[in-house]
Amino acid sequence: xxxFAKILLACFCLLLVAAAMLLGYSEWTVSDAxxxxxxxxxxxxxxxxxxxxxxxxxxxxxxxxxxxxxxxxAAAELYNNGKVDYILVSGDNATVQYNEPRQxxxxxxxxxIPAKVIYSDYAGFRTLDSIVRAKEVFGQAHFxxxxxxxxxxxxxxxxxxxxIEAVGFNAKDPSAYQGIKTRVREVxxxxxxxxxxxxxxKGPKFLGEPIVIGGPTPCQALSTIGASxxxxxxxxxxxxxxxxxxxxxxxxxxxxxxxxxALTASSTMSxxxxxxSKEADxxxxxxxxxxxxxxxxxxxxxxxxxTP
Length: 308
Description:
With about 300 residues, the protein is of the alpha/beta class.
């Protein structure tokens, strides 16, 4: 019995060592992506789109989530400094009551960002989903990720794995007390990220129809799950006003006049042709009569003289 207990203890210790090695390897591998992150907005290279990774606006107890607050501030800073032209907010939209993209969109508008430059991805259930969908659905092969530094490292690691040239702008970190749970969770999230990419070969839960950032999109309900994109109502296309009655009458009169002129011209041409034909016939008859007169005397002179 003691021998069996020792074997179990040895196996447990081996598992702990293996887990610790895997966690250490994932931490080291993912952290290497920090070379693509920036703390100073002036050093961030220009990208057309910033991808803001989602989080809840409020914590479970109802207090403000500083992760959310600082990401919104960082995204607005990028836009106001001309580092991006559009902002794509991506997050979870599991229920009507819980809608991360809608919260981020509203917060950005309150921060002074024009609504027309904000696009929403309602199927960003995980970091992997947000990154891959930014390329496959929204057509962005390079963009700037906005989140805290530890999250940016994992996001950029995933992006580079899928051939996306992403960089990160690091939002401010909350206090250590508020962020301790998130940091512990991040250690295991990095390990799961490696398993998703190299073992399980996972992809996004949803893809959907392509959405062109910068182009018109049909308006959808904000609570729609998946790839639907809410937008401001597109103004109706201006149609040319119908012609006024006077203009229509003038047009009809002109058409009638043109038709009458064409008929008159056709009649004139027919009359001229008939007259010409009659004149030709008269000329032929006159010529025939003249020929007959000139032929008569000549014939009488030719008759033989009578014998006395």
